[in-house]
Amino acid sequence: MIDQRRIHILNQGEPGKGPVLYWMHRDHRARDNFGLLHAQNIALERGVSLAVAYCLASKFLDATIRQFGFLLRGLEETAAALADKSIPFVVLTGDPAKEIPRYVRDSAAGLLVTDFDSLRIKRGWLAAVSKELDIPVHEVDSRNVVPCRAVSDKREYAARTIRPKIHRLLPEFLHEPPDLRPHPHAYQGHVPDTDWAALRDGLHVDRSVPEVDWISPGEQAASGMLGAFIRHRLDSYADKRNDPNGNVTSQLSPYLHFGMLSPLRAALAVSNARSGSHEGRESFLEELVVRRELSDNFCLHTPDYDSADCFPDWAEKTLAKHEGDVREYVYDPDTFEAARTHDELWNAAQKQMVASGYMHGYMRMYWAKKILEWTKTPQDAMDIAIYLNDRYELDGRDANGYTGVAWSIGGVHDRAWKERSVFGTVRFMSYGGAKSKFDVKGYVAAMDELWNDSPFSE
């Protein structure tokens, strides 16, 4: 059985006699997927068939072919894994708020199960779909090790406030999930053929940001990356994770963002690893569980997470006080996007993100804070940072990304520091501070080489 604390009832409804439908929109995997497992459990109890539906929206925030291509190639693998379990994978296209209810009715589904997501656009989808249906709709949190709603029913204001709540519950959830079973009841509904290449080619999305080849999508690649991290990088993670030249990060964020890897699977693998230091394991679990789940808490309880209105009161006041301060540099969005500021370190971080779809975590903080320093208002800074992050990062359009930008620019989950121009008492980061932590020149040279080998240098 799935822990009931993972399940949130969006619509009580009256269950029908037809199949159970699992609407996949966040957790794009067949393994370690509590939404899918919950749907199968109900289907087995009722002796009915089970199908998985995915609706490909023509637009999702500022995603380009880079992100859509990664998603679709991973979904093709997941569809094959589900077929091995006699579970059909139905691909729909269009507005999920319209197409999912339509398919529910066409298939005479008796119950709908779907994924938890804290983002505003997804909350809108879920609300619209639930309103259209008169059958039960269950939302299942497979995104978090400890379910977001179980941890707290309000916005937490810092890691220190949510950490004890998560740690208290963690032993109850840090367990091996059950396996998905072959489904014994054949699905009789319509399953359209999926031409994956045609689906990709037919997308009306921006193709000027190309896909990347340093990382492969899908559940198997995610498992391989997790294993490589544990074997080769976990031991140095605690000491070197803030060094962009250290090459010790897990590189799991794209897989976690697209739901190709369960955070529970990653937590179990690292917790049980024989290699790696105790400090490395604890440091990684802090990021994976506490910090990541704090982001979901923030976005769920703060619908304006992408606006300066989400800042804590102290940060709003100090930034307003310093909004009229003279900026030594003020750049427009195009200059930021082209990595043409006066700061070689900032430019290097932007080049890394544009060319590879990835930016080192320490550099993300520096990058966002400098956007605040070089724009006229905090809202301008938020808009530019979010646009660039969502357009280029593989793991953009994510609670982690929105929370990270809000932390950097608006002091969310942080405290007041020494007062200075522009920033007020929001935490400041400098080129000199970076030089004291790692080889800045080495990082800049490496990113220039990466950029020169990319299509963007032409």
Short description:
With 458 residues, this protein is an alpha/beta fold. The chain is built from 20 helices and six strands. The model has no long low-confidence stretch (mean pLDDT 97).
How would you characterize the overall build of this protein?
One of its GO terms (biological process) is photoreactive repair. With about 450 residues, the chain is an alpha/beta fold. The chain folds into 3 domains: about 140 residues, Rossmann fold; about 120 residues, Serine Threonine Protein Phosphatase 5, Tetratricopeptide repeat (Alpha Horseshoe); about 150 residues, DNA Cyclobutane Dipyrimidine Photolyase, subunit A, domain 3. Helix content is about 50%, strand content about 5%. The protein has 20 helices and 6 strands. Strands 1-6-5-2-3-4 form a 6-stranded mixed β-sheet, with helices on both faces. Helix 1 links the parallel strand 2 and strand 3. Helix 12 packs across helix 18. The longest helix has 24 residues. The protein is globular, with a radius of gyration of 22 Å. The mean pLDDT is about 95.
Show the helix and strand layout.
Elements: E1 7-11, E2 20-23, H1 34-46, E3 50-56, H2 65-83, E4 89-93, H3 96-107, E5 111-115, H4 120-132, E6 137-140, H5 148-151, H6 159-173, H7 196-201, H8 219-232, H9 234-240, H10 253-257, H11 263-271, H12 278-301, H13 313-321, H14 333-337, H15 344-356, H16 361-373, H17 378-392, H18 399-410, H19 431-435, H20 440-452
Parallel strand pairs: 2-3, 2-5, 3-4, 5-6
Antiparallel strand pairs: 1-6
